[in-house]
Amino acid sequence: MPGPQWTQGRVVFVGAVHEARPVLSTLLTHPAARVVAAMAPPAEQAKRLSGAVDLAEVAGHEGVRVLQAADINAPAVGDTVRALEPDLLVVAGWTRLLGPELLSVPAHGCVGFHASLLPRHRGRAPVNWAILRGETRTGNTMLFLDPGADTGDIIDQCPVPILLDDTCGTVYERVAAAGARMLAEHLPALLAGTAPRRPQRATEGDVLPRRTPEMGVLDWNRPARAVHDWVRALTKPYPGAFSDLDGHRTMIWRTRPPHRSEPDGPPGTILAVDPAGVRVATAPGSVVVTEMSAPDQPPEPAAAWCARRGIRPGHRFAPVPPPLARWARGEGPRPEVLAR
After folding, report:
1. Tell me, what's the pLDDT at 161?
2. Could you please report the per-residue DSSP string of 167-179?
3. Residue 123: exposure state from Cβ atoms within 10 A (0-12, 13-18, ≥19)
4. Mind giving me the DSSP string for 103-140?
5. Of 168, 241, 266, 320, whose CB has the highest number of CB atoms within 10 Å?
6. Cβ atoms of 300 and 291 closer than 8 Å
């Protein structure tokens, strides 16, 4: 039997980071959509975004032009979008809120995604926060965008598990895939103006604290599982966890899931350096660091990195002042002086 027949709707896509790619690919291949333009940040601005992707690589194969928007709410951008006469604006992996004027342009509204099961965990970096807090589930919510931060009407939701060996990158891959599936399912109704919508209550949910690279400071005076969660929550494509060793900042990119909980030594002490990695004491237990580097350098095997620098058992990562550790966990104010 022939498949359903749709009148194509005009879609403008807005995206910047990793979640954008599968959503744009879905739009480009869905028979209900005609993508008339894709908007992305300028190259210099994209370089400062964790996990930025090149949308021109995806859109170019289908002959869709990519427009650069340094300020998505600039009047000129609104004029450009208005001239395209979109039925729908789809936003994925964009880091700024859309203003009321741009939101009012598409005939059937603006659709976006948030990597949590709203109203839980509104705000930035929801997957990173979920992992570093030891949570075992996150999700993706497709919603109509409004001027608030993740407060629009919910269209659909999909739970996503967080496994012990996941990183922020692997979880975001599943989150992005879930978003693409939801969009494919609801796109005909979205373009017809008949998609389901469930309002959020302003009193429900929570708002996550904003994360900065300096919040990656690693407190070894925590249980082994918490240290492992911290590292995998902040690793590539994000700025990473770090700790001072012999007076130098050291990036910790990957650890193995811990299997022991009993005390092994003073927290932060290097207990062993061997081909399997670098075992470091926590409170209690220990973790094995398998990838580390100097700042601004790519991850490399931890044992080889330490061997070149003469790092041996007995060396110790610097302790973190409690106020700094609390701030990094989102539990207190930012200290006036950050440890370097």
Report:
1. 97
2. -HHHHHHHHHHHH
3. middle
4. HTSSTT-EEEEESSSTTTTBSS-HHHHHHHTT-SEEEE
5. 241
6. yes
Residues 306, 284 contacting (CB under 8 angstroms): no
Contact (Cβ atoms closer than 8 angstroms) between residue 95 and residue 123 = no
Amino acid at 108: H
Q: What does the alpha-carbon distance between residue 229 and residue 227 come to, in Å, rounded to a whole number?
A: 5
Cβ atoms of 285 and 279 closer than 8 Å: no
In the numeric block, which tokens belong to residue 107? 């005939």
Q: What is the pLDDT of residue 2?
A: 47
Tell me the residue type at 203: T
Token pair belonging to 307: 């061997």
Please list the ranges in the chain whose pLDDT falls under 70: 1-6, 260-261, 263, 337-340
Closest CA to 189 of 30, 35, 36: 30
